[in-house]
Amino acid sequence: MINKKLYISILIILFSFFSVKSQTRKQLEAQRIKLNKEIKQVNSLLFKEQKKEKNALEELKDLNKKIEVRERLIATINLEANALSKEIRVNENELEKLKKELKKLKEDYASMILKSYKSKSQQSRIMFLLSSQDFYQAYKRLEYMKQYTSYRKKQGEGIAKQAKVVEKLNDSLLYQKQVKDTLILFQKNQKQEIEDDKKNQERLISLIKKKGSKYKRDLQKKVAEEKKVTASIDKLIRDEIAKANKVTKTKLKTTPKTVKKNEFVLTPEAKALAASFEQNKGKLPWPVREGIVVRRFGTQPHPSFPGITINGTGLHIVTASGSTANAIFKGTVLNVLVSKEGRKNVLIQHGNYISSYNNLESVYVKKGDRVGTGQKIGQIFTDKVSNKTTLIFVLFKNTTRLNPASWILRR
Prior knowledge:
The chain is α+β, with helices and mostly antiparallel strands. It has helices spanning 4-47, 56-119, 122-130, 135-210, 212-252, 268-279; strands at residues 292-295, 298-301, 309-312, 315-319, 324-326, 331-338, 344-350, 353-363, 370-371, 376-380, 389-397, 400-402.
């Protein structure tokens, strides 16, 4: 006979097991897909184009990035495979338990049907009714017979449902084993790829060591130049804030007492815009359609040369050739700066925030223009030697630099 409570409890266990476990595995699967996409982007954006002039440091930096992403991918595959192995073991135990339960249910049902057949023939049913003492007892006996027939029917249906649960779990188990086999094969291929990359890495490190002093001098010179450019941009931004404040003070006809030096004087509209910008922290769109971050924000060791420290003023994002920089939020073009090499830097004001889009070849906006979220503001410069298209994306609150990665969407 079917134990109804046991059947319901089995379904609840199965449901809770699949929802919790699959959620964990779905997160790992999503992470694996994301990392696999990132590997493809690295190959496409950093290795697809042949560099006209090879630079061992630049090659090593790109290779390190690929190895780092691939190692994260392998680690994720391991976690996903382990999660699948645990799932399979639990499912195998559960399947065995369900099969035993189903066998017992079928045996009980068969025994009940046999007894019913022997004891409840058509003639005995009629005699059972006719032997009633009165009409009310006969009616009750008839109802009992109907209920008993209905109960047997439900038992049969219950067994059919239980069989489907077993079949579904069995199919799920086979699928999980196929997924695990595919993951293991994929992991094996990734390990081979990383071994090849590490051989190239060793070759480049050896080459850099031979010309260490030259590379070090070149790097130190580049770092010093970047500091000068950063200081120049900082001064320009302070000047732009001062200019903007003159206009705002004229409009307001009074100077707020709380405003400090090198901070924007805000109109009520600008305050509302700044508040809206802050509310969208972590949800702002990327300044490029697709791309990979090759330099993070903040002070960090050089990725290819030990002993050299670099400072990331924002995010260095490599994207596809011909790509445009897009505004991350609505605002007003504060200014368009031009470097001595002819590269453009568009500064967009969002209340007391500024988003900076540097290393542009051409721009589509001018000072004073109002721009919308996602609007194209310029084409990003492609280096003719390295064939890389890199946007330098910087974010300020007044004159203080912020980490843009904390403000834009995670990819």
